[in-house]
Amino acid sequence: MSSVFIPILILYSHEGKLMKKKMSDLSEQERIRTLDALYTAAASVRGRSAMKLFLRDLLTESERVMLGRRILIARLLLGGETRDAVRARTGAGYATIERVQRWLRDQLPGYEQAILAMEEELTKRDSGRKYASSALFRLKRRHPLHFLLFSEPK
Question: Taking the domain 45-149, which CATH number applies?
Answer without folding.
Answer: 1.10.1270.10
